[in-house]
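Risk register update: the risk of archive-format incompatibility is retired. Evidence:
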Amino acid sequence: MGFMLPSPTNPREHARALMSQKENIEAELDAQFSILKANNIDMTTPLVDREGFPRADVDLYAIRHARKRINELRNDYKAVMNEIETALQAVYDPSTVGSSPQEVAQPASLSDSAESLVAFARVDGVAPNSPAAEAGLRREDLILKFGSLARSSFTANSLQPLADLVSVNENRELQVVISRSEETMSLKLIPRKGWGGRGMLGCHIVPHEP
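Archived output:
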């Protein structure tokens, strides 16, 4: 049986509960994959020998159970990630409450009026061969929109909403609208780990006041 998603309460508390749910799923996925690793098996390794008989050198029951549970957890993970994205949007942009997940996740559009696209952050540095570099981000680019986040999504002098959005969008495409030399352009950024440096973006982003 899969994980149960927490019932909505206060938007911020709901987001925190979902993040905790995500961490629990990740922990159980690690545990189930460790069972496969202990048997030198992955999700597609045959469990019969060349004659078609069940293999006697591995724990078939544990492997089958782990594979089944991994598939269930992957579905749960996808569902909770979608819920987190919607919950974070409700926290940082309450005007979207009641929108469908598809509407909430709708990427930024260059058709937005110039008045609505006000820079809230500036790229202070980009690491070579990083996800940010691959997306085309450059130092001194001004960020007008990051995924579903706009200037209205931020309070005080903190970019925490951006960090939260990145953390739940690993290996998922985010559209970033920037201003460079007074020209507005849209870039596609895919946060990911394992690119050879720190973080999932590979760039330093700081708050910007127009």
